[in-house]
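The instructor's notes for this session suggest beginning with a concrete chain rather than abstract definitions. Hand out the sequence below and ask the class to guess, before any prediction is shown, which regions might be ordered.
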Amino acid sequence: MGRDHHLRCALRRRGTLLCILVVVAVVLPGPAAALAARLYVAVGDSVGAGFGATSGQSYFNLYCGYLKSAAGGSLVDQCVNESVVGLTSQSALDGGTIQKVVNDIDGSTDTPVITVVLGGNDLLGSPGCQPITGASCNFIHNMRTILDELETALATHPGPHVIQWLEYYNP
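After discussion, reveal the predicted structure:
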């Protein structure tokens, strides 16, 4: 009886230890698991967020599909859209959206393509931004700051990289 009891206790302890190790392995993945391989990141306003587009048919979705395809050179494995309806160049900087993009870049092994579509809300809703290049409009300064932050984050990755600042259409 004593020997069976010790054997059962030892097996119970080993089983408990094994369960703990499995839980830790599942809950705490290694650093390599957290990295996205090749990432396309988009940041923008309602146009970037796909406002008004048919589900799955926004420029982000279509461009992501292209960049993943053989026709697009299979440049990326994953796509992230950090666009927010109503975003301005200032709110992108102040509200942490650009920092999210930098974090996305830092969390990938490479980020060959970034698209930015900002400026429409600056033009339409920011005082002194008509024209958007006017001296009292912060858009050009914000644009340079955004580009500097993205380029600094990309400098730690293998290249080449492209940051595409998209223009608005004129219906």
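Then share the key points. The beta strands are 36-44, 78-81, 108-117, 162-165. The first strand starts at residue 36 and ends at 44.
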